[in-house]
Design goal:
alpha/beta; Adenylosuccinate Synthetase, Chain A, domain 1; Adenylosuccinate Synthetase, subunit A, domain 2; Adenylosuccinate Synthetase, Chain A, domain 3; 10-stranded mixed beta sheet; 4-stranded mixed beta sheet; 20 strands; globular
Amino acid sequence: MSNLVIIGTQWGDEGKGKVVDLLAEYADIVARFQGGNNAGHTMVVNGKQFISHLVPSGILQGKTCVIGNGLVVDPEVLLGEIDYLTEKGVDAGPAKLKISEKAHVIMPYHKAVDHARELMKGDKKIGTTGRGIGPCYEDKATRRGVRFVELLDADVFEERVRSILDEKNFYLKHYLKAETVDPEAVIGDYLAYAERLRPHVDNVSVTIDQAIKAGRQVLFEGAQGTHLDIDHGTYPFVTSSNTVAANACSGAGIGPRHINGVTGIVKAYTTRVGAGPFPTELFDAIGDSIQAKGAEFGATTGRRRRCGWLDTVIVRNAVRLNGLTGLAITKLDVLGELDDIKICNAYKYKGETITEFPTDLKVLAECQPVYETLPGWKSDISGMRSLDEFPQQARSYLERIEALTETPVDIVSVGPGREETIVIKNILAG
């Protein structure tokens, strides 16, 4: 029996959804432990594309899926996702999808504040998705939040909304110069959401603990990426939660002794959405080619992703922060047309070589990548199903990633489909 955490190693969009969907076959429970509907996991199964923002990717495998206490949840979005999956023939009923009673609820005023703040910042905006994630986490930290356990109690919920909206509307009107939020509309809408979601709400900490004691396997699904972590990322250009592996325990309500491995998802190149320093970003035809061939648009925002060469400085940082036991390399096929491929193995800063990821963004913005160049394989590898079929140049690229990160490559993805994956090692399979 093993339990595995899946973590993004870069700035999100690494392909976690596909890997979780693949490995879910060997798990009994798939649990999300942080973030909200600012995540976007894309899966392609039998030629059909599925996009989830809240529901764990394992739902397509018919597994029990858990939304942990570490998430902030927009109930309208969640219900839309449940309806979307149901229409596609996927069982997302209460027996298959459970929501922690401790998870916090995203309210309309959270989204209103999020949007108005970004407008006020102008060209200094952080690039938030505007979905109310940050303001909801703020209220959680200041003990002004609404959890699902309160949402399900109509009297408590109504009292909480009215008292909070007095403050939020004052802030919206007088500081942010934005439209206020009608408490009556909020109460009416959200109590209706509560009744639909009531059968899904559960003490998921107990559910997961009982499953583990019974010898069942749990796959913990992270959202965003290591370098968007509120503590360890490129602050302030980060998300509002802890995206590193340690939060799998806190965000799902289980102890660390139950974690047996951590797989870090690494896109074969580097992408980033929104603002913030990006040392290996490409502004040339190669960057445009990678962007086009990799279809680099955010599943949540639709925004064009910035593209650059693989940066192993940040991957090594993710290895340390997450205690990675293996890597999953995604979108390797995207690089198949290139004559040469570069890998960043260090930075140059004011004449000095830096091998550790700097905390100071002023330093990071001035860092120049130190590259090594490997020959490209100039062929389509998307139809290959074993490393033995790979051109030597592709194998050499993977071997160099292993050497620079001191972490084995366990999985290689060569296309969006579940079948377009080479699994070298899978601890869930025994």
